[in-house]
Write a structure and sequence with these properties.
By secondary structure, this protein is α/β, with parallel strands linked by helices. Helix content is 45%, strand content 19%. The chain has a 7-stranded mixed beta sheet with strand order 8-9-10-7-11-12-13, sandwiched between helices. Bound molecules: guanosine-5'-diphosphate and zinc ion (ZN). It is found in: Cytoplasm.
Length: 448
């Protein structure tokens, strides 16, 4: 039996114990399993209470059951959902029972979503979006993932692909004409106009920089400065500000290396570059390696100093924005501190006491504003992954080739257009993506 014809099951809800746990079953055996467990198959899509029993007649749990006959189900196959009491013992008893059924096996990570994809319920951008939605930490991440799930990019890509196919049909029609020695320009001209307009349209989507890719991982803010200026103190101060925090990633027992903030719905990761240090601990080493890679690629650098005269060194790329943050204002005279307090966000200069928290709220507020501008508040972005960007770039490139190849013959033009259409097909997961699928779906959790 092909693996995709097997019936799979998994716990689809979160960590136990919980009030309720949801076990999903998908595949041709779903109805047989349901009728064995409940004594009957409930009405489709109707929440039905039922006492689950083992095949030996032993009660397992008093449960709520849902029956979704395919293809009108999440995976496109027959699906059963068992809402059980969320204890380890109930789950263990149910899983134990399910394991006694032949042709039933535990699902692999992402296998439900993969089946939904393979049965045409969602395209690849939708599958990616589902994963993003499950992992969304902030409100803007949630919004973007939901828009993608609803076809923001997928629908556009499908429409573009259709237009390319239509243009290709016009070009190929003129190949037939040219056999008779006469290539009618009236046929080709509109096709090329269409191709040029399409290349421009996709090009615009690519240049509209709303940083959708960064929305997945967070805007990166690196704290840089001499030893002892207070970098660790600042990051620990940020980590203590529980209102803003998503998850502090502590470098085991020592300083926090990075904090993840939710600023106005935008994810922001602040990295202490001094936390990047030699360590023998393997877990910590991995954290350090990641922090290093991300700091090198920072969007905003906070140059922390405790002396007015210090100037930031050349940091990262030319485009990176550097803000000067003077620390330890609590150590200065009243007058001096007040003067520094007048340095506003507009001048990209701040004065704080990382230790006592003074000025930190203003700094965080300014970073939030920076994030809002960076992501383009309220605007939608079609591109949420590098994969999308690469394939749209390829599409534009092949469309431009087809225009450049106009004088070199219709066959060449038609081949260019096929390549452009193929790039969009890959984006949607319609063709040539076998190699990609294992990578994408293995990132999912089990039960999704
Ligand atoms: P790092 O090497 O840049 O990470 O600096 P640390 O955060 O380890 O701080 C070095 C020293 O400066 C520590 O003793 C901190 O307590 C102290 N420090 C940090 N920020 C402040 C501050 O705002 N005011 C005062 N008075 N001391 C501070
Ligand atoms: Zn430090």
């Amino acid at each position: 039996m092909h693996p995709s014809e097997q019936t799979i099951f998994a716990l689809s809800s979160g960590r136990l114990p919980a009030a309720i746990a949801i076990v999903r079953i998908s595949g041709p055996q779903s109805s047989a399993v349901l009728s064995a467990l409940c004594g009957r198959v409930p009405s489709p899509r109707l929440a039905t209470r039922c006492l689950l029993k083992s095949q030996a007649g032993e009660p397992i749990d008093d449960a709520m059951v849902l029956w979704f006959p395919g293809p009108a189900s999440a995976t496109g196959e027959d699906v059963a959902e068992l809402h059980i009491h969320g204890s380890r013992a109930v789950l263990a008893a149910l899983i134990g029972e399910l394991s006694t059924f032949e042709q039933l096996r535990p699902a692999e990570p992402g296998e439900f979503t993969r089946r939904a994809f393979e049965n045409g319920k969602i395209d690849l951008t939708g599958a990616e979006a589902l994963d993003d939605l499950i992992h969304a930490d902030t409100d803007q991440q949630r919004r973007q993932a939901l828009r993608q799930l609803q076809g923001l990019l997928g629908d556009r890509a499908r429409a573009w692909r259709q237009q390319i196919i239509e243009a290709a049909a016009l070009i190929e029609a003129s190949i037939d004409f040219s056999d008779e020695g006469d290539v009618p320009d009236e046929l080709q001209a509109p096709a090329f106009a269409k191709i040029a307009a399409l290349a421009a349209e996709i090009g615009e989507v690519l240049t509209a920089q709303h940083h959708g890719e960064r929305l997945r991982d967070g805007l990166v803010v690196a704290i840089v400065g001499r030893p002892n200026v207070g970098k660790s103190t600042l990051i620990n101060q940020l980590a203590r500000r529980e209102v803003a925090i998503v998850s502090p990633h502590a470098g085991t027992t020592r300083d926090v290396i990075e904090v993840h903030l939710d600023l106005g719905g935008y994810p922001v990761t602040v990295i202490d570059t001094a936390g990047i240090r030699d360590t023998l601990d393997a877990v910590e080493q991995e954290g350090v390696r990641r922090a290093q890679a991300r700091a090198a690629d920072a969007d905003l650098v906070l140059w922390l100093a405790d002396d007015d005269d210090e100037m930031p060194p050349a940091i990262g790329s030319d485009q990176v924005v550097v803000w000067r943050v003077r620390n330890k204002i609590d150590l200065q005279s009243e007058a001096g501190a007040r003067a520094d307090g007048n340095l506003s966000a507009a001048s990209q200069s701040f004065a704080i006491s990382a230790k006592q928290g003074e000025g930190v709220a203003a700094l965080v507020g300014a970073i939030g504003e920076f994030a809002g501008n960076y992501f383009g508040a309220g605007e939608t972005t079609l591109i949420s992954r590098q994969r999308h960007r690469d394939l749209l770039q390829q599409t534009v490139q092949m469309l431009q080739c087809s225009i450049a190849d106009r004088d070199r013959g219709e066959e060449l033009v038609a081949e260019d257009l096929r390549s452009a259409s193929r790039a969009l097909g890959r984006l949607l997961g319609q063709i040539d993506v076998e190699d990609l699928l294992d990578v994408i779906f293995s990132e999912f959790c089990i039960g999704k």
